[in-house]
Amino acid sequence: AGVALAVADSPDALADPELAAWLAVRAGELAEAAPLADDSLCHGELGVLELLGHTALPHARPHWLRRTGILLAAADRAQPHCGTPGHVPHPGLLTGLSGIGHGLLRAGFPDRIGSVLLLRHSAGIPPGRPGPLSTSVVDHGR
Length: 142
Known about the structure:
Radius of gyration: 17 Å
Structural class: mainly alpha
Number of domains: 1
Distance between the termini: 45 Å
Helix content: 40-55%
Shape: globular
Strand content: under 5%
Number of strands: 0
Order of helices and strands: HHHHHH
Number of helices: 6
């Protein structure tokens, strides 16, 4: 999903007919596959959702909705599954609980929560400007 996401996010890659065709095939395979065993951003279900929710793949939107619903229902019933051996919980971003939490927020508010995998800021906060919870000394004029 990571390589496919990089292709989907690159206008130059999408302009290449071979890469665009590969992306369509790969996204279709991932859309039809069973949910993954872990929920992580790195190589789990949330990484697949990031790809299926990308604007370059509008035909994948129904699959994104279905798989997001499955993930949210599973998160409501059981603990999240980290991308570690034995799904041992840890606080990491790419394979751990912080990434899963971010991914769940993004699933609920995709237009307001920026993509960690694509290094995008949240909507409504200009780049280079601290968010509302910032405690920077500069923000407080000290």
